[in-house]
Amino acid sequence: MKTKVKSGDRYGKLMVLNDGENIERRKYFLCKCDCGNITTIRSDAISGGTQSCGCITKEIASKFWKKHGMRNKRIYNIWHGMKQRCLNNNNPGFKDYGGRGISICEEWEDASNFFEWAFRNGYTNEMTIERIDNNGNYEPSNCMWIKQSEQLRNTRSSVKITFNGLTLCRRDWAKKIGISDPSFQKRLKKYSIREAITKPINKEKQHYAIRSFR
Fold it and tell me: pTM of the full predicted structure?
């Protein structure tokens, strides 16, 4: 049964200030946090356990920083490495990140904001950060945490190949010419990129992979 949220209700550090406003089929409430911040929060988030404007998580992150010394922690190294790849043109990885126009959102230039997002979105020591759009920036809407083994698999299958002005990852080229990714890998080892893409898949039927490229 859903909890009915109304003006005057208190949820943790939040005091509900109005009876809500419907925006795109969802109801949002104006709330005041004990820290003094006034924010708008969706009804299902309030009834689902949201206890503050976000300051509680910040407090946890701040205490963790002070108590444990984040500079010695793996998550700090992830944040630092991310900045180096995007902002330091002397970094070996800069050409593949900052050199391609990939940047970090202003919010994450502050390490504590990045740590807060990480803690709230499933970070563990077994996880590594992954950009959803490989050409997109490091920002909350384009990042998630995945297992390191999964990232390695994604990296191997996301090798970019450009042919006749079209750039696709290896998996998408394989799909486009109608063969499996492992089969396309074998073709790339055996032939040039042009031959791997355009050479007939079935010689008996003389079926060309992509006729438009011939």
Answer: 0.44
